[in-house]
Structures are given as C-alpha cells and as structure tokens.
Amino acid sequence: VDLDTAKQELEEFIPHVRNISDSSIRKMAGRDLVRFKQFKKQGIAVKFGRFSQKENNQIRKNIEEFLLITGIDSAEKLLFTSRYPEDKDTINRLKAEHLFCEKLSEGIPRPWRLIYYRARKIFDPNNYKGRYTKEEKEELKKYHALHGNDWKKISEMMSRSNLSVAMKYSEIKSAINYGPWSKEETQKLMHAVEEVIRKRTEMEDANSLSSSEKSHRNLLIDREKLYQKLPWTEIEAKVGTRYWRQCKQKWTTILTNKMTKGQPLYRGTKGLQAKINLIKRLYEMKAEDPNEVNWEELSNTIGDVPRAYVQAKFYKLKVSCVPSWQKKTFSEIIDYLFKEKLPELEEKL
Predict the structure, then answer these.
(1) Predicted pLDDT of residue 204
(2) Ranges for the Myb-like domain (predicted)?
(3) Does one domain contain both 37 and 105?
(4) pTM of the complete model
C-alpha cells in the first residue's frame, strides 16, 4: 500500500501513527498491518506498555520453535547476529527463508518492533550480570568520554546490554546525592515537574483554546497526568543533583503527602488494615499477571494515593512475606499471601 493509505489504515490501531517516521510506517505496513487486521477479526486489541508473563512465554516459545526449524544453535546468535560475524550470512539467509518476522510475532498483538526489542532483552546474556563494580563504573565513564552516547558500541566493549549501560551512566555521570533531600532540591523537583506538565498541557490545548482563554486560564489537569508517563530523564537534568529514579520516588512521596493531607496511611492498625484490604482485593481479581491489575482502581484500598505508592507497598509485601517469591508466578504469590499471610495479619489487627 502507498504511504498515505498505510497511515490511514494503521491509525485505527495506533492513534499516534502520524508522529512516526515514514520509514517506520512503511516497515509497519509490511510487518504489522495484516496481523493487526487478523487480531481485530478475533476481537483482540493491539497492546502497548509492559509485556505480560503470558506474552513473554509466547516469545520464548516462538524463538525455541524457530531455532528447531532452522538449526541455529542459540537465541543469542539469532537475535544478536552481529556478535557472530563468521555465521552472519548463514543466519540471515535462514531468517529470510523461514520468515523470522512472522514467526517471532505469532500470537502477540503488538507492533513487531516492540516484540523484537522485548525478545532481545529476554535473551541477552549481558542483561543479567548483577551490580556494577567500582572498576566497571570507571570504565563506563571513560568509554562515554570517548564514544558519547553510542551505547551499542559501549555495551559491546563492556559486555553489558545497551539499556544497562545507558541507565547506569545516567546514575553515575555526575556527583549524585544519596542522603535526605534538601529543601532546595525538593523545590527544584517540583518546579521541574510543573514545567514539563505545563508544557505538555499547553501543547495539547494549542488548538482547542482561544488566545484570550489561554492567557486567563489556570493550569487545570487530570490527576493521572501528575504521575503517569512523565519524562524523568528531562526532570533529572533540571534537578541536577539526583538521578531520574530518585526523582520519581521523591515525586511519588510528595504526591502521596499532598493527596492524603500528610496523614499516615501505612502505620499501626491503619497499616494492618491496608495490607489486609490489598491482599483481599488482589485475590478477588484473579489476575495471572501484574499487568492485568488496575493499580489505579486498587489505590483506594490504602487511601487516596498514587498507583506507584500501591505498587511499592505490594512489592515490599511480597519480598518480606513470600519465600522464594522470584521463582513464583504472580498468581502463586497472591495465593500465598491470601492463605498464609492474611490470617496472621487479621489476628494481629
């Protein structure tokens, strides 16, 4: 199909498609459009956001089947072919002959590119190497001074994944505070968040408000915009003394205090009741994956708080109460909390 038709047809499945580059749209027209239409016939919507456990398992299954069909001996060779220059031509020929694109995305209602990136993250052995040593941090600074933000090159030199080196550099690139936040830092954070939200809101309103309305309008926004999809690396740069994850955690604390008027929600009998409510609601939902949970809706089990606060409390609960939680599925964790921890909490209350 021609470019305009491709944009028009893809827009039904990807509303922001007109912001995507023409070359990417052409690729999506070839790799995704037919798949999206088939999923629509089955009543399945195209998904974005975090991958569920079920989708991760489907990716593993698709990769394993493709390796069996082609005789390629590892997922690393299949997904990181440039690491094996002597096998590159053979692997690329087998990928083309056996329709790698189609096989990888089988049964997963998402854009092919996102599935491919997820597969690379799952199967990259450089992704799971634990904490960085002091020497590695110094190496990372040195390589960045030489190669800038060429994370692909740096990741190969350090035998770490692209994402890992980029995120670690974000943490260590300048002197970062690790103690309590000063009043000045907190003010900088609040101004930075206000600035990015104001900018985003003004862009959204550009076509819907007259100039006189804009000049007299206070900043009125949906509550969700205060904590969902904020550009944390941009906010980190504006704050200057903290890295993005610290900024995100601090902002959640500030919002929680504002929304609850500073009332303690997770201490004493209130804390016990909040844990009991949280476990009961999660058990009632019968979700098989954390991505299926509406954390926004769950927030009222604790009080009027941001979803990140509830997710953090659930994480702490499973880590402190569920033995070998890393080896359990989400539903097994919830079952354990309901059967073993809930009676104990109710008795304590």
Answers:
(1) 65
(2) 124-172, 173-255
(3) yes
(4) 0.58
